[in-house]
Amino acid sequence: MKNQKLLPYLLVLPTMLYLVVFFAYPMVSALGLAVTGETRYLALLDQPDPTASEIGTLPMQTDVTVTDRLRAEETLPNGRTRPFYWFYVTGVDVNGDSITGWVSQQNLFVENRTESVMGRINNGTPVREWTMSHINTMFSDFRFQSAIFNTFLMIIIILPIQFLLAIVMALVLQARPRGNGIFLYIFAVPMGISDLAAGLVWYSIFTQQGFLNSFLVSAGILDRPFIFIALGNDGWILLAIVLAEVWRATAIVMVIVVSGLQAVPTDYIEAGQVFGASLWQRIRYIILPLLRPSLQVALILRTILAFQVFAVVVAISGGDVFTVLSNETFRWYDRGDGGYNNPNVASAYAGLIMIISLAISFFYLRAVRTQEEVAKSS
Amino acid sequence: MTTRNRADLPPEQRRALRNASIRRGGVYALAITLSLWILIPIWLIATMAFSTPSNVRSFPKPAFPSPISTDTMTFFINAEGILRSTGNSIVVALLTFAMSTLIATPASYAIARFIFRGRDAVRLGILSVRAFPIVILAVPLAVTFINFGMYDSIFSVALLHTALVLPTSVLVIASVFASVPFELEEAAQVFGCTPFQAFWRVVIPLTLPGIAAAGLFAFVTSWNEVFGAMLLTLTNRTLPAQILFSLDKASDPFKFAGGFFMLIPSLIFIFFIRRYLFSMWGQVTK
Description:
The complex is a heterodimer of chains A (378) and B (286). Chain A is of the alpha+beta class and 378 residues long. Chain A contains 12 helices and 8 strands.
């Protein structure tokens, strides 16, 4: 019996361990990467001697004035000697205080060892410290505003269409037409379609020599193909992305809504029918209120997933003329030709997406709860 | 007979019957319209994938492939890196399938069968993991894998994909276990099975299709995932990463054939798991 008490924990353990190692740890370290950075600091010495005590530190790249210098000798392994300089420098440290001390020639860049009066610290020991610089880089990036704007615009347009379409699909399936199974399969197929494939499908429609232009030209509506996907045609690009996302990602909402509908007691709907409620009234006053928990889950899930829209955007627009947040995360991380190879700023973007996702989920949960509380109190 | 009866009915009932048949017609019209909305884009890209490359480049494009040709698909499959990355994708998806099923099944069983302190916390914890996008996971994991010398390995992609699908797998398989009455296991134990035998001989055969459905879903998710695969690999790319990587230099025949090629597994797998979709996602809303 003692075993029985331990058993469930043993069974859950592998999953928990896995999620800690490959989920919780990376999540925390992502936030860490976003708000910390390595800066190199050089210690200034009170004597021109490597073993002397430190006066203070200057960050690497600090400009300093050289007020004195000392010519020493160093012995090379082969027994010969050569001059080795120490410089007495003054610079401003991170606190804004002016400090003065000795620096060896290995740690200071000077144009001329015997004459220069200006130098720059070019070495130091790395120190990991809190910094806002990655976050500031993100905020001041020239693509940042359009990424935020496009992402939100896209979500605001996509979600209502998706929910309307999903509810209609679910009601159609609920009406059990003949061939229900086939319709269910067709409606559900996009669940398994990747965002990249969906992007390529809609690229074939919207590209210059694509199906939309083929249709418009063949039907005589246009004389020559119109270039939908081009710099400055943000509206058309957005339309193509919205259609691709609605096409691809409505299925998951549909499945959640159908599961929710199955839990709605048919008595309620029949009672509504008996009392003469029209189809619209039954939907509006019976089905939708009972579906609220399912819709809430679907809304949270869809919103979070919509922030990840990446391959659709790249497949349709190439990622440069039209950009979204996940695309910027990739661009900052990317070690290839088009990328900036900066995991810190990429993490700042990832963290931003996470904070927005959490905030929106919290908002949805709050909004629904307060409505229920209002209903209870009245 | 029905027609005569119908004519004899009072007008308001006749109107009700007419309304019912109009509504039925409306349901069909809607169902067919919605199906076309899903199917036409698939048809169009399939048309491109099975036209000759010169027809793919032609304008205006035909809505039917004529002549039907596998040249475009052959061109795509023989393009540099495609066969290798397809192999990589299959290996990654199989690893994800195996790891997620093996790790998730015990946890699912515990959640479905045992009442233990912290059960709700475990459930909630697993559920909340789903609320974090892969975009956030991929960057730090890539950095971690670089530190461990595991960068650019398809195994590291499989580890990421497993983390991605594990929560869904646990919840889905738990709902499959919950659908098997505990009495069956008790009966097996009464007839002399050990608890493990009861699980292995009674519960597993009954739940295998559901567990397989969850595994297939993991397979498809891994096959489709591109962001993490793109970040974690440089030369050992999976298929979506390879396609995305070559997009800016790729010709239209390559893109269309690639798009269709990537669709195929979803067309097959969703057919097999369609019955389980609702128990999979119904669970989430509880």
